[in-house]
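wait is this the right file?? whatever heres the structure
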């Protein structure tokens, strides 16, 4: 009887430690379809889509609206990622704290006409999370974003005013991956 108990126990332990298919898998990395700056010192001026992302606070404010077309796939988790690699040092700079708050938006962005005074309302009114831009490395991203499959997702990025004046600017690149992306995991 004791031998049978040990044999059954070994099978149970083996089943509990057997590898499963639950290891997260990166399905896609999405780059923004557009980066639209809105500037407090030029509140009526639409700047349209840019290849350079800029977020500033100190001498006025420059916020950035980023939009992504999210495919319908099997993703269960989506994460913002922010990277400023040494290999692309000539395409970015960080001055000050490097802390960015990111927000969801109440309506889709008009990437041609939106301005500082005519832009979507932040929803919720508090940040979804923060990005700490670190030159030469992946930024530290806190918070989470919903994974709205098969839709467009827009975010506003603004310098955190609690951390003092800051300026972050980057040229969005695929190789080496530089700037803001969304990673979709299943």
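ok assuming it is, sequence goes like this
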């Amino acid at each position: 009887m004791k031998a049978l108990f040990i044999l059954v126990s070994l099978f149970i332990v083996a089943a509990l430690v057997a590898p499963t298919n639950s290891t997260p898998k990166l399905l896609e990395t999405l780059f923004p379809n557009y980066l639209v700056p809105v500037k407090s010192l030029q509140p009526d001026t639409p700047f349209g889509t840019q290849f350079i992302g800029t977020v500033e606070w100190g001498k006025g404010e420059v916020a950035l609206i980023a939009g992504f077309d999210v495919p319908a796939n099997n993703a269960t988790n989506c994460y913002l990622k922010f990277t400023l690699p040494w290999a692309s040092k000539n395409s970015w700079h960080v001055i000050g704290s490097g802390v960015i708050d990111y927000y969801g938006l109440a309506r889709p962005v008009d990437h041609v006409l939106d301005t500082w005074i005519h832009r979507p309302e932040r929803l919720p009114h508090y940040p979804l999370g923060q990005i700490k831009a670190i030159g030469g490395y992946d930024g530290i991203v806190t918070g989470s974003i919903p994974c709205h499959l098969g839709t467009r997702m827009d975010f506003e990025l603004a310098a955190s005013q609690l951390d003092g004046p800051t300026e972050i600017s980057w040229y969005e690149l695929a190789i080496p991956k530089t700037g803001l992306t969304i990673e979709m995991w299943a």
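The radius of gyration is 21 Å. so i think its the right one actually
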